[in-house]
Specification:
The chain is an alpha/beta fold. It has one domain: Aldolase class I (TIM Barrel, Alpha-Beta Barrel), CATH 3.20.20.70. It is 43% helix and 14% strand. The chain has twelve helices and eight strands. Involved in the gluconeogenesis. Catalyzes stereospecifically the conversion of dihydroxyacetone phosphate (DHAP) to D-glyceraldehyde-3-phosphate (G3P). It is an enzyme of class 5 (isomerase). One of its GO terms (molecular function) is triose-phosphate isomerase activity. Keywords: Cytoplasm, Gluconeogenesis, Glycolysis, Isomerase.
Length: 249
């Protein structure tokens, strides 16, 4: 059974004070054993977060990366830079990157490869819009995004992924997929992974990323194929994020 992982995505939010607050709170908190916890903070906070989280079990993650290792790409950040600052994970293909910044499946794959080559764990985000769900295309869209990456990777590279299912219609809207809806998609993802390799499916961490909160986390995490959460707004509140992490134990 995969190790539970609760990862917070601050998006373009937060402050140095909040970084310090999380570091202190998680250093002192009573946390369940056998649960991985991480925060994906904005680039400018990575170094401070690395220091602040050093006394806690919080791992450090980034929100995206360039598909290039270096060069004349003003404003971009490479995987090697993220590693040097202590990041161990990086989001790839988040719905906001796909929709607001035009990252298609090819761009997502290039970023996955860029993460893998420097030893970062890519958290590959998959999800459908409301229109796609209403058209009955949820599985086709989500599994298509999965296959666009996994078909191009070697078997050992696939094992280094984390998968996050984030229904686009449930991000920042206050709407949440029911536990049964979320479980159905997670089960479809795991079944598709099993077609590559049974061991891959059994070991893959599948996170739910659609408005997970302290109030609904336990019920979502109780589903058999939901191994953790990619938490948005609630990850900006120390007490809420702590509660979600504690519910994963």
């Amino acid at each position: 059974m995969p190790t539970p992982l609760i990862a917070g995505n601050w998006k373009m939010n937060g402050s140095l004070t909040l970084v310090e607050d999380f570091g202190q709170a998680f250093a002192d908190a009573d946390l369940p054993e056998g649960v991985e916890m991480a925060l994906m903070v904005p680039f400018p906070f990575l170094q401070a977060a690395g220091r602040a989280f050093a006394g806690s079990r919080l791992a450090l993650g980034a929100q995206t990366l360039s598909d290039q290792p270096s060069g004349a790409f003003t404003g971009e950040v490479s995987g090697e830079m993220l590693r040097e600052l202590g990041a161990g994970l990086v989001l790839v293909g988040h719905s906001e990157r796909r929709t607001l910044f035009g990252e298609d499946d090819a761009a997502v794959l290039a970023r996955v490869r860029a993460a893998l080559v420097v030893g970062l764990r890519p958290v590959l985000c998959l999800g459908e819009t409301l229109e796609e769900r209403d058209a009955g295309r949820t599985e086709a869209v989500v599994l298509g995004q999965l296959e666009a990456v996994c078909d191009a990777l070697a078997a050992d590279e696939r094992t280094r992924l984390v998968i996050a299912y984030e229904p686009v219609w449930a991000i920042g809207t206050g709407r949440t997929a029911t536990p049964q809806q979320a479980q159905a998609v997670h089960a479809a993802i795991r079944t598709r992974l099993a077609a590559y390799d049974a061991g891959l499916a059994e070991g893959m961490q599948l996170l739910y990323g659609g408005s997970m909160k302290a109030a609904n986390a336990a019920e979502l995490l109780a589903q058999p194929d939901i191994d953790g959460g990619l938490v948005g707004g609630a990850s900006l509140q120390v007490d809420d994020f702590l509660a979600i992490c504690q519910s994963a134990g």
